[in-house]
Amino acid sequence: MKLYITNCKTCQSKIYIDATASTRSDLRSRFGGDHFYAVCQNCQSKNLYHVTEVFAESEKTSALTGGVVGGLIGLIGGPLGLLVGSGLGAAIGNSIDDDEQKKVDSFNTSR
Ligand SMILES: [Zn+2]
Predict the structure, then answer these.
(1) Which residues pair with residue 49 across a beta bridge?
(2) Structural domain tally of the chain?
(3) Which of 30, 57, 84 is the C-terminal boundary of a domain?
(4) Residues 66 and 40 in one domain
(5) What's the whole-number mean pLDDT along residues 82-89?
(6) pTM (2 decimals)?
(7) Separation of 4 CA from ligand 1 center, angstroms?
(8) Angstrom distances, CA of residue 63 to CA of 1, 44, 48, 86
């Protein structure tokens, strides 16, 4: 899961923030309040933002993780292993995606 600010106050681009938090109140406790400074990766300007301007999005690395796991099982088990492995890999990938989506939703619906 990645956290970002929807719009830079200077150039309107999306700013990814280097912080991990499961909810906005978690983020608030990390920043020590509602407001925090962030530097835009696009225009380098530093502006003050409010925690409610922060949203979460999922990182789609899980399909890759699933594929790697599937491939590894395939390597050990041969053709049948590859078949089982790719199915299992996809299942693992999907369950990570579901989990990730739940975390994203719970952040985005937090206050
Ligand atoms: Zn900017």
Answers:
(1) 36
(2) 2
(3) 57
(4) no
(5) 81
(6) 0.75
(7) 13
(8) 14, 33, 36, 11
Q: What percent of the chain has pLDDT over 90?
A: 63
Extract the runs of DSSP E, i.e. beta strands, from 1-111: 2-5, 15-17, 35-39, 46-50, 54-57
- What spacing in Å lies between the alpha carbon of 93 and ligand 1's midpoint? 34
Distance 56 CA to ligand 1 centre (A): 19
Per the CB < 8 A criterion, the answer to whether 23 and 110 are in contact is yes
* Span 69-97, average pLDDT: 80
**Range of the structural domain that residue 84 is part of:** 60-111
What percentage of residues in the chain have a pLDDT greater than 70? 95
- Domain boundary residue among 16, 36, 57? 57
Q: What is the pLDDT of residue 30?
A: 95
Residues 1 and 35 in one domain: yes
Amino acid identity, position 48: L
